[in-house]
Design goal:
It is a single chain. The chain is about 55% helix and about 10% strand. The chain starts with a helix and ends in an 8-residue tail after the last strand. Bound molecules: protoporphyrin IX containing FE (HEM). Protoporphyrin IX containing FE binds next to helix 13 and helix 19. It is found in: Endoplasmic reticulum membrane; Microsome membrane. Pfam families: p450 (PF00067).
């Protein structure tokens, strides 16, 4: 045992990294605010070539940020490290957090629920409907003299998107339930972050005591309650639909519409057909989707709008592209329209590079791993695929600390390795919802930007980032909106 620890220490300390303090390792970094911490990590990555090591007391971490190493790790090593267990306490044992042994089955079934050849049409219908709701809600802010924060509007909208695409219309669940769930999600997510960055909160009994002392004893359960409630409602509707389908009248209807239009029905169908999923397992997968797909999309949309509000010249270029595709037509976007919005997509990709929303994925291997630099990482050590650090590397992006959609001009993309841009990860555990995300983000942004012009009093140099589980802007998304047309395109 002692020999094993010495071996880990020997090899980990052969990697680059800032000085280590006796017993503490690099744990003093945790005293910095998340805003400062992320800046320090960016600086370390400039100073030290990949792999970068850090010690949280006695726990070693090795960060990698070259395309070759990230591709190798995420292809070869599918087991996530113990940090994902803390996340699992919030969102359950779904495809994002579960151990490899169970993950293969979950992923296969979830892939079928997110098969975009089948699902893009029903999903687009939801995204279009929700865009109109948002357009309507923003009317309250049009021409106001005060700046307002975009975040609550956008988060509510992406949350509604994910609820409807994941669970369909949910009778008996009202707006209050969703608001409660959004709120408990925010608190639960904050508590999980504290546990990740403050290792003394990691032992389960200490964390339970901490939640109790903070008056947040039930917060993790609260977040999981709504999906279970919705599941019950859906199961009942699903059974009724099945009964109808088996009746003669229903059979005629079934001919016209055989497809399921939301994730939960697909899972219920699987559960019935192959006895695959228990109620708890379905609820865990649904909670995972709510977690993985709502804030991530909301950050990408809000940040892109915010940067466009700062960079009026780029916003005009996006608007010109939209005008070319739609003219004065008030139709909602089709898949063909969205495919033509090449420059808007460049802006979205630049946001995903600049604020790599899911910045890291940590894996743990049961075998020693040799990196492209020749460093050996012993089995059992957490290796962090630091997507965000690769996206900030001058080797692949000129002037990487500036937001610049020209980074995704065709010639620039062709001149760097394909693996140097992986905001959705890489390998078999790559984001399950990346096509969904592009579709949802592009739909919402295109409709908003056709209708409204955004401006702000912030400048590029004011924009700061912060990190919790996700990377996001620390600067509030404070903007003003005005209508592009005399009357709203979609009134
Ligand atoms: C801008 C939006 C999004 C970003 C940047 C993003 C990014 C990521 C990343 C980096 C991973 C981890 C890959 C790894 O471990 O190496 C991931 C996993 C995952 N994402 Fe996303 N994601 C986004 C939106 C979504 C959406 C909309 C959904 C669902 C509707 C989703 C569902 C998932 C799931 C289920 C996993 C776990 C996959 C697995 O372990 O097999 N994500 N995402």
């Amino acid at each position: 045992m002692k020999w094993k620890l010495q071996r880990v220490e020997y090899y980990v300390n052969k990697c680059n990294g800032p000085p280590i303090i006796f017993l503490l390792g690099n744990a003093l970094e945790c005293i910095y605010s998340p805003k400062v911490l992320i800046k320090r990590v960016f600086d370390y990555a400039k100073q030290y070539e990949s792999p970068l090591r850090g010690w949280l007391f006695h726990i070693p971490y090795v960060g990698i940020y070259t395309p070759e190493d990230i591709q190798m790790l995420t292809t070869k090593c599918l087991e996530k490290d113990s940090v994902f267990d803390f996340l699992g306490e919030l969102i359950g044992d779904g495809v994002l957090t579960t151990k490899v042994a169970k993950w293969r089955r979950s992923r296969r079934i979830m892939n079928s629920a997110f098969n975009m050849t089948v699902m893009s049409k029903p999903f687009l219908e939801v995204f279009n409907r929700q865009s109109l709701v948002l357009i309507d809600q923003l009317k309250a802010e049009v021409n106001s003299k005060e700046y307002f924060d975009l975040w609550p509007y956008i988060f509510k909208s992406t949350f509604s998107n994910i609820i409807e695409t994941a669970m369909g219309h949910t009778h008996g669940i009202n707006e209050d339930d969703f608001t409660k769930m959004r709120k408990s999600y925010e608190v639960a997510s904050e508590m999980i972050c504290k546990r990740v960055y403050r290792p003394w909160l990691r032992p389960p009994f200490v964390f339970k005591l901490y939640l109790f002392l903070m008056g947040k004893k039930n917060v993790l359960n609260e977040f999981k309650q709504l999906p279970l409630k919705i599941l019950e409602a859906r199961r009942q509707m699903f059974t009724e639909r099945k009964l109808l389908e088996s009746s003669s009248e229903g059979k005629a209807e079934e001919k016209n519409d055989k497809s399921y239009k939301n994730v939960i029905d697909i899972l219920l169908n699987q559960a019935e057909a192959e006895d695959q999923f228990t109620n708890q397992e379905i609820a865990d997968e649904v909670t995972t989707i709510l977690f993985a797909g709502s804030e991530t999309n909301a950050i990408t949309i809000s940040f892109t709008l915010f940067m466009l509000a700062i960079r009026q010249d780029i916003q005009e270029k996006v608007y010109n592209e939209l005008s070319e595709v739609f003219g004065e037509d008030d139709r909602l976007p089709t898949m063909e329209d969205l495919n033509q919005l090449v420059y808007l997509e460049q802006c979205i990709k630049e946001t995903l590079r600049f604020v790599t929303v899911a910045p890291l994925s940590s894996r743990v291997s049961s075998e020693d791993i040799t990196l492209s630099s020749g460093h050996l990482i012993p089995a059992g050590v957490s290796i962090v695929a630091a997507y965000v650090l690769m996206h900030r590397d001058e080797k692949y992006y000129s002037n990487p600390s500036q937001w610049n959609p020209a980074n995704f001009d065709a010639d620039k993309v062709a001149s760097r390795p394909a693996g140097a841009f992986v905001p959705f990860g890489y390998g078999p555990r790559k984001c399950l919802g990346y096509k969904y995300a592009y579709l949802a983000i592009k739909t919402l942004l295109s409709t908003l930007l056709r209708n409204y012009k955004f401006s702000t009093d912030f400048r590029e140099e004011d924009v700061e980032l912060t990190i919790d589980i996700l990377l996001r802007s620390a600067t509030p998304y404070r903007v003003k909106v005005e209508c592009r047309h005399k009357t709203s395109l979609f009134s």
